[in-house]
């Protein structure tokens, strides 16, 4: 019980006693009730100010944590994924399939690990971005990897997805495919839709299932594979730090695909 609650109870008791005009201490009780009522106002105001200071401190702590997380993604994971991508591309170029047939064991390992790596990346994108559902703990975000299957026609085909129920569209083409190709994949730049950027989706700007999106290129050095996407219901769900995370995940996926 807070101090204001205790004083409030005292005011109630005093008001009941003060109502009895035959009580010899009627005037004293009345004055005591008035003093306690004033104290309730002052204490409640003090408690409110304290709560606001605690909330402001909590907001600052969250902002600092988000900044530290953003720095980790930017300074560690993203450069690491870029370096792995270059190494993977160099390895693939040094041992092209035209020169030598891969060993059966290596082919089997590639076929087994490729979908597992892709699914791990997609699950990470879904659970490490938007908040999970409070009751079930399931992700509210949905992630997908679209492979560039026809550069001439700007066509991207869904390879796999994870997260929020409801599969994404199977194919991105036309104006949406051109957006993926020219705004994300070719310039090697992320595209962030949401309140923070003010940008709208160029795939489906009238969607009722998501209001924020991050699309990042999946590449390994000069090799272009496709686009990694995550979307979430609210326009505030996906923030700047999530762009760095998605960029790192896209780089790691690109490195894995270059080796596979």
Walk me through the structure.
- The protein has 260 residues and is an alpha+beta fold.
- 54% of the residues lie in helices and 16% in strands.
- The protein has a 6-stranded antiparallel sheet.
- The termini are far apart.
Write the layout of secondary structure elements.
Layout: H1 3-18, H2 26-94, H3 104-127, E1 142-150, E2 155-163, E3 171-172, H4 174-185, E4 191-193, E5 212-220, E6 223-232, H5 240-259
Antiparallel strand pairs: 1-2, 1-6, 2-3, 4-5, 5-6
User: What's the overall geometry?
Assistant: globular
Mean pLDDT: 79
What are the segments in which pLDDT stays under 50 over at least 5 consecutive residues?
4-14, 16-21
Work out the helix count: 5
Q: What series of H and E elements makes up the topology?
A: HHHEEEHEEEH
Q: Helix coverage percent of residues?
A: 40-55%
Compute the number of strand runs.
6
* Rg value: 29 Å
Structural class: alpha+beta
What share of residues are in beta strands? 15-25%
**Biggest sheet descriptor:** 6 strands, antiparallel
Main-sheet strand order equals 3-2-1-6-5-4
State the end-to-end CA separation.
62 Å
Structure summary:
The protein is an alpha+beta fold. The chain is 54% helix and 16% strand.
List keywords for this structure.
about 260 residues; alpha+beta; 6-stranded antiparallel β-sheet; 6 strands; about 15% strand
């Amino acid at each position: 019980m807070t101090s204001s609650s205790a004083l409030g109870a005292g005011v109630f008791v005093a008001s009941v006693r003060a109502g009895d005009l035959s009580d010899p201490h009627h005037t004293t009780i009345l004055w005591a009730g008035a003093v306690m009522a004033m104290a309730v106002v002052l204490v409640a105001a003090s408690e409110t100010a304290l709560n606001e200071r605690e909330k402001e401190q909590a907001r600052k702590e969250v902002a600092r944590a988000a900044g530290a997380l953003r720095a980790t993604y930017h300074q560690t994971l993203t450069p690491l994924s870029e370096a792995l991508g270059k190494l993977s591309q160099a390895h693939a170029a040094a041992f092209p399939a035209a020169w030598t047939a891969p060993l059966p064991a290596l082919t089997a390992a590639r076929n087994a690990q490729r979908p597992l790596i892709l699914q791990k990346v997609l699950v990470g994108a879904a659970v490490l971005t938007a908040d999970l559902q409070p009751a079930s703990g399931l992700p509210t975000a949905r992630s997908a990897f679209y492979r560039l299957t026809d550069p001439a026609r700007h066509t991207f085909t869904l390879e796999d997805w994870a997260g929020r129920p409801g599969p994404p569209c199977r194919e991105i083409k036309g104006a949406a495919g051109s957006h993926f190709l020219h705004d994300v994949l070719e310039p090697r730049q992320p595209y962030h839709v949401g309140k923070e950027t003010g940008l709208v989706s160029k795939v489906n700007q009238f969607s009722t299932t998501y209001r924020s999106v991050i699309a990042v290129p999946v590449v390994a050095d000069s090799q272009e594979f496709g686009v990694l996407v995550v979307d979430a219901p609210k326009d505030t769900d996906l923030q700047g730090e999530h762009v760095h995370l998605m960029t790192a995940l896209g780089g790691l996926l690109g490195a894995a695909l270059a080796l596979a």
